[in-house]
Amino acid sequence: MDGVAAPPHGLTAPPAAEDPAALPRLRRRAAVLWLAVAVPVNALIFLGRQLWGSDQRPLIDDAFMHWDGRWFMTIARDGYSYTPGQQSNVAFAPAFPIVSKGVSWVVGSLPLAMVLTAATFGLVGFLLVATWFGRRESVATSRSVLLLFALYPFTVYLTGIPYSEPLYLATAVGAFLALESDRPLLAGLLGLVTTATRVTGVALAAGLVVMAVARCGAVRAATAEDRTAGPADGWRWGRVVVAPGRLRLRDAWVLLSWVGIGLWMAHFQDKFGDPVLFSNGNFGAPGRWLTEPSIRTLFKVQYFETLTTEIPAYVITTTVHGILAVLAIALMPAVVRRYGVAYGVFCGVIIVMSWMTSGAFQSFGRYLLVAFPLFGPVALWADRTPLRMVWLPRFFAVGLFGATLMWANGHWLS
Known about the structure:
Number of helices: 19
Largest sheet: 3 strands, antiparallel
Strand order of the largest sheet: 1-3-2
Distance between the termini: 35 Å
Shape: globular
Strand content: under 5%
Structural class: mainly alpha
Number of strands: 3
């Protein structure tokens, strides 16, 4: 593996030795790439507001406060509310609106605060992704990853659109990096924010637990000696050895990551008498993007039903999401082999939860934005043939341009 340390016990892949000179250059490259994407994306959104917007609403509000952004704004402004049979803001997590509300006390405008919060964490997420790949891949591969990540069509959501993905990405990558640096308390605190940012934050919490257990050797791949003489520090279970005596008490700090969603549930229990209202409170409401997990959802019956009933733009968009979903599943073995089981759990839980709550692949491409390890195998595949690293970034860039135009024109994107 290029630039990747051999994973101990075969269960987790720690970062390779950090190149003191390469990482700062990669971070600078990430910052430049983020600016190169964010500036034209926001310029196009503001231009679209002039062409297609409403003169009745303030500039920031009219340009950015659509879809989830408006729901987040109601939470930050008025708190949670729920009316049975109607779509309500209980489906949206509290961390992003809480942070945005705090920023609004400084800048004096809630919509502006939400945009600034999203843009700031989008940049931080870029820098942390550069650090993560820079610690385990070659410089050339890391550069390819950053280019593809920057031009990925749904990276539009990391440039200032007030959605929760930037906060999720920054805290999730930060938590993994903290645990890899043997700082489980910091990892748990960052994970707490992640699980309070989206329900799929539990993917990060699960990944941290797996990583903590694997790093100390409490669960490891069985060696030839283990298979013949038996393990001296535990017992063998199939191809792995379980050695609970190796667990470290200080690693229990990663369990703090579950507190974020726990506090969210406690608030819903206190206010509405239903701790999981975020998962079932909107399924009875009208709306084509609200789908309860079921056999129909598993086999995407809704998607095939909408092929002849929905407008072409919606069919094209959901088809793109579906293609990305299938590709993400296909990339999972490569993620596990290259980066370890913890990152496989992280990406796998995101994919499974997104699949089972999206009846027609709605928003899948955006959900995958935070599953950052998936971009590694894509970049490695593209790097094998120079032509791929010519046409693939251009293909992504066209998609990013199209996604920005859709947002600027007020069309549902994700």
